[in-house]
Amino acid sequence: MVLGKRSDYGDAKYAGVQVPFSDDIPKTVESYGLCGFDFVVAPLVRESWRPPAPAVLDNGALPSPLERSDCLYINSSQWANQVVGAVSDWIQPDAANPALRQRSVTALKTQLGWAAHLGLQAVVMPPPHAPGRCPNYAGVLNQALQSLTHMALWLTVPLVIPTPTPAHGADSGAAVSAVAGAGGLDGWEAWHQVRAQCDHHNLLGAALLVGPTLPSPASLKRWAGEPVKALLLPTAVFSANKRGYPVLPKAHQELVAAFFRLGVQVVITGEACHAVPPPAAAAAAAPGAKQVTPAPAAAAAVGPGGEPLGFTVTDPGESHPLRPYWEYLCFLFRRLEVVCEQERQEASYRDYLQVPLQPLQDNLESQTYETFEKDTQKYTLYEEAVFRALKDRQAAEAAAAGPRDPFDPANATDAPAASAASTSGRPVVLMVVGAGRGPLVRASMRAAARAGARLRVYAVEKNPNAVVHIQHMLRTEGWSDCVTLVSADMRHWQAPEPADILVSELLGSFGDNELSPECLDGAQRFLAPGGISIPQSYTSFLAPVTTHKLHHDVKAYKDLEHFETPYVVRLHRHYLLAPTQPLFTFVHPNTDAPIDNSRYDSLVFSRDPADGAAVLHGFAGYFECALYKDVLLSIHPPSHSVNMFSWFPIFFPLREPVYVPAGGEVGVQVWRCCAPHKVWYEWALSAPVAGPIHNVNGRSYWVGL
Ligand SMILES: C[S@@+](CC[C@H](N)C(=O)[O-])C[C@H]1O[C@@H](n2cnc3c(N)ncnc32)[C@H](O)[C@@H]1O
């Protein structure tokens, strides 16, 4: 049974269930599968299993610590896809009692060795028993991680850890934080301690244990940038609605929906799961699950409010007592906003690193232009900007020409504005510089038609291959008489006449990073005095970001060069530690003398103490561009142009993840450096700790002039 287009939100299976120890795991998988769940979380060994005392070796024999009947047993990769192992939760590698500590370490190593041998994809690890102080646990995990190749360890992390009583050995230094729920400790701190000691290993993920009390929404957002693999949702946090169906409180519903959007799967856990017999017997036996009315046989499945879920329950699992929980997850999943076409297109680019284009140094391929041209919203904004500029010119010329004769039919309000296009009678000279395959020429022609303006257009393009497309366009669209095609670099071309309007789109994800300033400085020679540049200005923005996935992907290259490269990336699983701030602004035409496009600035971002500590992996960059007056083109989140997808944000990585304490500051210094043949950025952290300057002298990354 499929829940929906899961691929829209990630490829992971989405709903699992914790089961008791089973001798016959294929049967368990099958029975819970019939009930709807995609996978089970099963103990690796019986609850009663303890590691045997070290054996006296006889004649080199190596006795196995596990008997066949002690442990989860699978022998097929088919089951490995549907079983997540669970390590015994009596294990306490940091117990004060040395015997328990030693036994725990042995048991942990034995169970992880067994799980790896079975080829499981993941294993759920018990929570740190002493949050914030479990060095031995972290040490064993770290050792295990060194030898794992694909099996992931999901550390159980309670979102809120109950404050330990003195009997549990709590002492004053524990990570108490305002972000934890009432009277608890911040689970994020416990997680960070372990993963930092494991050097942010990519096979270590978090399985968040959701309790009845949730931390504040602002502090929960930190998890968006972390490697959360599952939400553990105990049946105890559900309550029964008046129809007897299990439902979640509103805050929990929002939490589950937010994690579904990030592609995180949910595991139903708790006593109820343990008390449930296999389905064959379930119909006869009273369910251990509380307050649940099993769904009627062969009925249309309904959500908790009685609304149809869009499928009919006919399989044998429908009477399973956990079935209503699965149906409730379906209901939450289906309630997610419908994914729009743009999101669907972008889904495969999520959190995928791309090196920025260099349209000045390189010649773009036809397919790249084709992708640009799909973004109709971008061209609509340019059309509007050109239209407004033409109208303003018409108004200015009309004002300069003096009062109009109201009896002159040419001045009637509904007369074609063409007659007023230029009171001087000459067409407006509009130059599209960097015309590509011609879409901005087309947008300008549409604007002129709307404004009733006569245009003389020059389409200037330095890519000789793109020019061929414009030649074709001029023929097919009948513009040969008013559009002149110029195959040249705008910085060196000698224009035959001054331009009234200079239209360009040379912007990168960080605004100036594709060298729009350098190109337009070269082209403004032929802009008439008082002429208009579209765009008029652009500003880059930065924000500190948590993004475990991207940091890991950069680190995987195992070299400095990749840590000193900014990437274009559709940020998905990420968290901004503070609101964005403006960085560099460029204005066109540039009236500075002499012109200097190098820049330096430092920014300080302050974290709200209530949001808790967080980890910093780098900086997310965006731009906002004033095409003409208030016609904005923006990928800056607060002003992002609706339905525009030409640019993804940019990511500046830091070599090492940095802990930012609650209420702490993040300081960054950024340089835009210019040399005769290249432009590059350098960046460095100044707070909470000073860090090395990245990309010194453009040694790893630069943009060619
Ligand atoms: C980002 S593309 C935009 C293309 C097109 N205007 C569009 O919107 O689809 C930038 C274009 O500017 C061209 N370009 C970049 N620098 C240039 C220069 N100095 N002179 C002429 N063309 C340039 C590139 O070859 C490329 O076709």
TrEMBL record:
Domain of life: Eukaryota
Domain PRMT5 arginine-N-methyltransferase positions: 342-534
Ranges for region Disordered: 398-419
Cellular component, GO annotation: cytosol; nucleus
Keyword field contains Transferase: yes
Domain PRMT5 oligomerisation, chain residue ranges per copy: 537-703
Gene Ontology MF terms: protein-arginine N-methyltransferase activity
Composition skew (Low complexity), residue ranges: 408-419
Location of the PRMT5 TIM barrel domain: 36-334
Keywords annotated in UniProt: Methyltransferase, S-adenosyl-L-methionine, Transferase
PROSITE patterns referenced in this protein's UniProt entry, alphabetically: SAM_MT_PRMT
Keyword Ligase carried by entry: no
Catalytic site: 505, 514
GO term, biological process aspect, one: regulation of DNA-templated transcription
Entries under InterPro entries matching the protein: Arg_MeTrfase, Arg_MeTrfase_PRMT5, PRMT5, PRMT5_C, PRMT5_TIM, SAM-dependent_MTases_sf
Residue numbers marked as site, Critical for specifying symmetric addition of methyl groups: 372
Endpoints of the signal sequence: none
Residues annotated for S-adenosyl-L-methionine binding in this entry: 369, 378-379, 461, 489-490
Family named by the database record: Belongs to the class I-like SAM-binding methyltransferase superfamily.
Protein name: Protein arginine N-methyltransferase
Organism this protein belongs to: Chlamydomonas reinhardtii (Chlamydomonas smithii)
